[in-house]
Fold this sequence. Notes:
By secondary structure, this protein is α+β, with helices and mostly antiparallel strands. Helices cover 27% and strands 33% of the residues. The strands form three sheets. Strands 3-2-5-6 form a four-stranded antiparallel β-sheet, with no helix packed on it. It has a three-stranded mixed β-sheet with strand order 4-1-9, with no helix packed on it.
Amino acid sequence: MKHLFRSAVFTALLAAVVVLPLSGCSLFRSKTETVTITATPADSLLIVNGMMMGSPAVIEMPRDRNFTIQCMKEGFYPYIVNTTYHFNRTGTLDALGSIFVLPAIGLFSSGIWSLDQTEFNVVLSKK
């Protein structure tokens, strides 16, 4: 019985030693990023991915997806922007590390991506 327990403990430790280096840093990053949007004039209609919200808006957005920001107010030109994301430095390090240490599991997580922009200051222009 003691032998089985020791064997199980050894197997668990060995698995931890093997799996953690394979995971890479990207696996431990948040799946979202905080996005701040401020609109001027303050009573403008702010819409993010089809959801209306007030200004300023502080929201959590997935780091591996595009999203759309719309801002409008009567008498002003509307503002629309489609945001994008990119392969970040952590993802690059995990990809390079995969050659030597194999942190490949992290490359399948959203942690390898970052939003291109996380702060928006929207100023509408009068017509």
